[in-house]
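S.,

Sequence below, as promised.
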Amino acid sequence: MRLAAHPHAVWWLALVSFLESSIFPIPPDVLLIPMALADRRRAFWYAGVCTGASVLGGWAGYAIGYELFEVIGRPIINVYGLQDQFAVFQHTFNEYGAWIVLIKGLTPIPYKLITITAGVTHLDLVTFSIASAISRGGRFFLVVVLLWYFGEPIRTFIERYLTWVTTGVVAAVIGGFVVLRFV
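The prediction came back faster than expected:
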């Protein structure tokens, strides 16, 4: 809360958003929500800062997966003889990677897991970047729209239920695609 009122709060928001996408466990909502409530005129700017910094942080997570996998991950896979299974996993992730990034960027699954996995599997960086911008932007702008429109009363709802609501929406969309595919 002190950081949200700090004169350099936007820089702190960008830093937390960046780090949360690659290594940091705390989501930027802890700064975004109080900042958006304190200055609703700049709320959409804050969501844009979160989105941009999160995508850049996603690139850092991608780089971690891309670079450190060869040093640490591949030798482990080789020791256990899992080369074939990993090849199948990599193909599946790359085939559905855009959807995985889009969906998981909105859910409570830590985004850093998706960014690092995308790097490990060498998901196309352009696809990864576009899907990241859409999913992370959707997430942060949804929070800001709710805060901007409803103000302080929606804060408790967001803090308690936003994760469940976005997870429910994602599940409904996936369910709809499954029904359409098999009908």
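The chain has a mean pLDDT of 82.

Coffee later?
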